[in-house]
Amino acid sequence: MTIEQHSVLVIRHESCSSLGLLESVIQQAAIPIKYLDTPAGETLPDAITNYSHLIVLGGAISAYEDQQYPFLRYEFDLIETAIDHEIPVLGICLGAQILATVLGAAVYRGTAGREVGWCELQLTPAGQRDRLLQDFPQTFRVFQSHQDTFDLPKGSVHLATSEMYAHQAFRYRDLVWALQFHLEINEKVLSDCASVIEQEIAESQIEATNLPMLLVEAKLHSPAVVPLANRLMHQFLFQTPALVQQ
To answer: Which of 2, 12, 62, 233 has the fewest CB atoms lying closer than 10 Å?
Structure first.
């Protein structure tokens, strides 16, 4: 069977989360979106090959906690099948760490502590040439909240770095992208997931910032992220193969 129309499957680890700023391009193109809440026990009622693109969102758990959270193993299998069928995949934060795991790289607790807030990232030379990132500024500011990091999978291309954690993005083949950072987050998305962010800050014993500060900063910084989110999603949807052979 050949998929001739776009449709996006989104794996979600927190009920509060969404595609946020990344959703605008999808909505404008009237592309169907299906959210799959795997922590709630949801499994895909149809084949992954019925979807043209897969996006894996973030969450407060760790990719290496699959013994504690067996639904992660279900996700690993689903993502492996998507990659085998050349379905474009985008992983964000936890989603990026899950992609690293699936591709055989180590994921672990970072020694620099939690990277949280509106952080400056820098594209590598390869990132500046990447199909999804090539029109980004060489340095840009975007929201982050993570304490885990990952090694680069064998055969992947390193795309972005930050002062705290070098591995901020990679591409595998020409169909899989992993972003440690959150292009989807603006003030609304941050507010929707306030309890998750507050818990992460408290557990990491961070005193330099708090949710009210992050919300103020979101209002300041997220407008500059909008065109970046739009550009990345347009390239992801329309400049990667969307026809999948089953």
So the answer is: 2
